[in-house]
Amino acid sequence: MNCKYCGSPNENADNCGFCDAPLKKQRPQLKEFLYLDQAELPFGQLSLFHTYDLLILLRLVREERTKCYHRMRSVQKGSKLIEIDSDTLAFAESEYRRYTARMKVIEGILIDRVGYKPKRVDDKLLVSLQGKIENG
After folding, report:
1. N or C, which end of the chain has less CB nearby within 10 Å?
2. Angle 86-88-58 (CA atoms, 0-180°, nearest 5)?
3. Where does the source fall among the domains of life (predicted)?
4. How many degrees, rounded to 5, is the angle at CA 112 between CA 111 and CA 117?
């Protein structure tokens, strides 16, 4: 088996004899499609996602978090005008907190990989990264 990092041939070992890289570790592969529920995966599974996929997932989570924030604020404002039960208000707040926590997990993985978290994940960033992946 050849090392994926340095290309050195190795026989029946867990690590490369030259660079000590793990030989059986799978590199992240691009996914065909992503959906918001994947943000609920545990850290260990999210860390196996490709960086490009993590950026898309971060974009989805941030969009949903923004929607939850607006819903939460509407419920809070509405509770002053009409009677809204505390369960509805608690649910709106918990959804916002849940997406905030998921966002922070994904941002943390990105910080570990690229050294920063992007302020915005827009089409320009994604197209640029896609071009680098295709050329790389």
Report:
1. C
2. 130
3. Bacteria
4. 10
- Within 10 angstroms of residue 9's Cβ, the number of other Cβ atoms is 10
Determine the Cα–Cα distance for residues 35 and 57; give it in Å rounded to an integer.
7
This prediction's pTM = 0.80
| Tokens 């604020």 sit on residue | 73
Determine the Cα–Cα distance for residues 18 and 15; give it in Å rounded to an integer.
9
> Which tokens sit at 128?
């640029």
Q: What are phi and psi of 102, to 5 degrees?
A: -65, -40
What DSSP line would sit under 78-132, residue for residue? HHHHS---HHHHHHHHHHHHHHHHHHHHHHHHHHHHHSS--S---HHHHHHHHHH
